Amino acid sequence: MADDLLIPDDDEGCTVALEELLAASGLGHEEVIELVQFGVFRCAQHAPVWTFHVHTVSLARRAARLRDDFGLNVSGMALALTYLERIEALEGRLRELESQLPR
């Protein structure tokens, strides 16, 4: 996978074109379209060129790893990505709550 696409620390408002996403992630065009249809990837702009928030690059790389490491199809990638993001959000919330506990 190409790592030449640098993701800035302050990525607010940063987008990547579909072609950049494909090159950076190793996903195929049809896979990205299906992940958009499943609602896993959200387009920042649809016409005339699809663009995605820069966060989608790391999500797409993770999808490609799931496909390559576990042989998942697109629906499997979508399900796994959804659950992984939910788990990470819950772990973050747990850390936040634990930090508020008296010691």
UniProtKB/TrEMBL annotation:
Gene3D superfamilies (alphabetical): 1.10.1660.10
Pfam family, one: MerR_2
Domain of life: Bacteria
Name of the protein in its database record: MerR family transcriptional regulator
Source species: Aphanothece cf. minutissima CCALA 015
